[in-house]
Amino acid sequence: xxxxxxxxxxxxxxxxxxxxxxxxxxxxxxxxxxxxxxxxxxxxxxxxxxxxxxxxxxxxxxxxxxxxxxxxxxxxxxxxxxxxxxxxxxxxxxxxxxxxxxxxxxxxxxxxxxxxxxxxxxxxxxxxxxxxxxxxxxxxxxxxxxxxxxxxxxxxxxxxxxxxxxxxxxxxxxxxxxxxxxxxxxxxxxxxxxxxxxxxxxxxxxxxxxxxxxxxxxxxxxxxxxxxxxxxxxxxxxxxxxxxxxxxxxxxxxxxxxxxxxxxxxx
Length: 267
Description:
By secondary structure, the protein is α/β, with parallel strands linked by helices. It has helices at residues 15-24, 38-50, 65-78, 107-122, 159-180, 200-204, 213-224, 249-262; strands at 5-9, 29-35, 54-59, 84-87, 133-138, 186-192, 232-235, 238-240. The protein has one domain (5-262): 3-Layer(aba) Sandwich (Rossmann fold).
């Protein structure tokens, strides 16, 4: 069994996620790189190895919950301990029509939120198993309240609304995880890594980047570092307040019940 610190970063073949794993590359750190493109994944692994670190690439498309399950199984087949899980993968499609995931869910909600909801809970046995662990959810300052009567935005759809709702759901997941894992040597925090970072997702949305991907990566790294901070939301490296709905326990309970049903967790 490896004594390396093992860190999984979803969506780490491009953008902020890639910069996170490249900055972490060093002897004694084994990085689990995730993405949809094998060629890009191998390129990131090579970059990490050239920097003196070690890495493994895992291919999975978060458009499919079956792929999320396969990813969790593949990680658990090779590792018993995860020292950090960075839930970073995501999409932002501000324009265009409403689209559904392979499982029939609105795609922002499915990829940004449900996939990470399922993955984190499936990997729970690996978190804090042999050493303290950190869960970091990469969210956004763009947070729209959740409408449980129109959760999948089948009417009144807008890309910005869908994205903001999925990101607020991630904040709620963070706060739930922090409470559930209290006393288990596991912390859970979330952050808005920065506005309009220089990433493919931002450029494809037709937005001119205003900040570097490195700035967002550095903010994420600050939460991966050993610390006791938990159940917090940050804007970059500054602690602040998320949308007020995230602090409503009944709203979070309702979302969790629905999420367990949609992901068929424990069924």
